[in-house]
Amino acid sequence: MYFIDISEGNVKVRAKRILFFFISVPVLFAPSCKSNPGRGAGASAPGSKYSVGQSPPGWINSPYSKYNKEKYVAVTGSGKNSEEAKKSALANLVKYFGQTIQADQKISTTYSEVVKRGAAANWTESTVLEENISTYATNTLIGADVPEIWSDGRNVCYAVAVMDKAKTEKIYTDLIRANQAMIGNLININQKEKNTIEGFSRYRFAAVTADINITFANVLKVIGSPVPSGIKSSDEYWLEAANIAKFIPVRVAVEKKTDIDRAGSIQNAFSRALSELGFITTSDNALYTLEVTLSLTEANYPNRQSEFIRTEVDAKFARYEVSANLTDANTKMGLLPIYSINGEAVQSTLQEAENRAVIAAERKINEQFRDWLSEQLAQRLSKR
Hints:
By secondary structure, the protein is of the alpha/beta class. It has helices spanning about 80-95, 105-115, 130, 165-185, 190-195, 195-220, 235-245, 265-275, 305-310, 350-380; strands spanning about 20, 50, 70-80, 135, 145-150, 155-165, 250-255, 280, 290-300, 315-330, 340-345.
């Protein structure tokens, strides 16, 4: 089995991508189709039959001439080298299954991160999740294989991507059942436990898992396999998480390490994000506190003066740093990773630059923090 390794961006600003889950194996960098497949870099990749010849095999134009349609889903792809051919075949396999197996990028990321960290293992007795979902990529499905690659020996390669229906049915059925067990354990809490960040996080991740189960079920439908009973929409879990948030007060406290009187706009930006997720923001008697630090410092860049200010007045640079730590008001312990941003602004005076810096920080918080907090809370699963 193969996958395409895609580097991830900054955790706070994730690229918009539709993601699929699959079994992780080493990336196999195949050579040009002109290479000799028998030796060195041109050798056949493990698990994939590599051949070269003048007469193309029948599976190139008709994959089901070799792979029984009753037992397999099979599609082909081509490229200038074997790696491109594999990617093309796997991408065509995804197209065969269609949009119904695609999960929203944020949902996919949240689910994958929890499983990869091993947190999901605390909520299900099954090991099938960690065994089958250790990473993700854009062009493959769990259980996909590329058994054959053929080259004309010059400038074109062909590959066939195959999914064994019986194996696929077992994998996805086991995944769905493991997820169902996890959902049941996550929401099995009393009312006092429910109206906490812990309860909110449980229901958020239950909703994420329910969304993933729908995509898994759709894979089974495409290959004509029965879908396990009891699959539910995520709507009730998302709704209950929103209801829980209404009973959770959060205080936003800003420590201002600057003389500039603009800390209120930073506090309002964080309060807005919390309110959009349904939380109550309050000035006292809160179960949780969002401890925010705002720092502004003058930065000196002598070689960059004329780049920004084309006047006789020297440019002034102000650098901002903002951090936010969600803590339990009783234990003072942080509940999530610390959110932090920084940047700079330039104007003709330091005061104007500082004002601009705060505006830039506020804008970034408005753009990022709600989604970041939502994702972090959905991923926050403690042990049972």
